[in-house]
Design goal:
The protein has ten helices and 14 strands. It folds into three domains: about 5-45; about 60-165, 2-Layer Sandwich (Uridine Diphospho-n-acetylenolpyruvylglucosamine Reductase, domain 3), CATH 3.30.465; about 170-285, Enolase-like, domain 1, CATH 3.30.390. It starts with a strand and ends with a helix. The strands form four sheets. Strands 4-5-10-6-7 form a five-stranded antiparallel β-sheet. The protein has about 290 residues and is of the alpha+beta class. Helix 9 crosses helix 10. The chain is globular, with a radius of gyration of 19 Å. This is FAD binding domain-containing protein. InterPro entries: CO_DH_flav_C, CO_DH_flav_C_dom_sf, Diverse_Substr_Oxidored, FAD-bd_PCMH, FAD-bd_PCMH-like_sf, FAD-bd_PCMH_sub2, Mopterin_DH_FAD-bd. Keywords: Flavoprotein, Oxidoreductase. It comes from Coprococcus intestinihominis.
């Protein structure tokens, strides 16, 4: 029978997680569902709820620092209307319902490694860095490549995700989710795009997509395509760009059929969303 362990410090938490069959828990919004399905029943739970230093948002010289135990509600409150960070606020506002957003944490959203996690594509598009702490020290890793598959990440035994660092950005970002409903539903597809532009050309661009592969992923071929384009000046050119995006995305994503949607539907939605967000950002960057 599993037991609950409650550390008072990050060091204690790392010690507890470094041995035995144990799993860390923050808001527990995923844990209860997983245990109902028979997962983690043989593992001790290390609850992080006393580690208040892991909650909150602060602005430092190298960017925004978001504690891993920060709730979705707080993220939405702090970043709504804050330039490119507004995309993260939008994603946070669409996670579950009010109760989930009040208790669920951004660290849990990352470490659950769901391909459909709503905040992860935004963090990828904004070049977020994860701070991982263990008994032996600290390491910083890019969120891009951190997810290894459904439910699997590159975190080591005995490590805790303490915070997420997002460098300051001068461009604009957008997030869009398509699901059965806006909230209280797992994403069929979600897309985040970040753009900087100068003299009619894109100078910086990142595109990240969720629910289109075994993990959320960057659309590198599509990014490269768009960097070669000037802003289309007619609907015919926009249509031509749409067709090229569809071809490039075929190289980037591999959506599957499941109970929520077919792979071909996901691909069509992804094509449309990328074009829509790129067009919005091109226009936003010109204002």
């Amino acid at each position: 029978m599993s037991q609950m362990l409650i550390p008072n410090t990050v060091t204690e938490a790392c010690q507890m997680l470094s041995s035995g069959n144990r799993v860390a828990c923050a808001g527990a919004t995923n844990l209860y569902v997983d245990r109902e399905k028979g997962k983690y029943l043989d593992r001790d739970i290390v609850s992080l709820h006393r580690l208040k230093e892991l909650s909150g948002i602060r602005e430092e010289k190298d960017g925004w620092h978001i504690g891993s135990l920060t709730t979705f509600d707080l993220i939405e409150d702090v970043f709504r209307g804050q330039g490119s960070m507004d995309a993260l606020a939008e994603a946070a506002s669409l996670v579950g319902g009010p109760q989930i957003r009040n208790r669920g944490t951004i660290g849990g959203n990352i470490l659950s490694a769901s391909p459909a996690a709503d905040t992860v594509p935004v963090l990828m598009a904004l070049d977020a860095v994860l701070v991982l702490v263990s008994e032996t020290g600290q390491r910083m890793v890019s969120i891009n490549g951190f997810m290894k598959g459904p439910g699997r990440t590159a975190i080591h035994q005995g490590e805790i995700l303490t915070e997420i660092v997002i460098p300051f950005k001068t461009g604009a970002a957008r997030f869009r989710k398509v699901g059965k409903r806006n909230a209280l539903a797992i994403s069929i597809i979600n897309v985040a795009v970040y753009m900087e532009k100068e003299a009619g050309r894109i100078t910086a661009l990142t595109i990240a997509i969720g629910s289109a592969g075994p993990t959320a992923l960057r659309a590198f071929h599509t990014e490269e395509l768009l960097r070669t384009w000037k802003r289309p000046d007619s609907e015919e050119k926009w249509q031509s760009l749409h067709e090229e995006i569809a071809i490039a995305l075929s190289e980037d994503i591999s959506p599957i059929d499941d109970i929520r949607a077919t792979g071909s539907y996901r691909k069509t939605v992804a094509d449309n969303l990328v074009l829509q967000l790129v067009r919005e950002l091109w226009e936003a960057c010109e204002k």
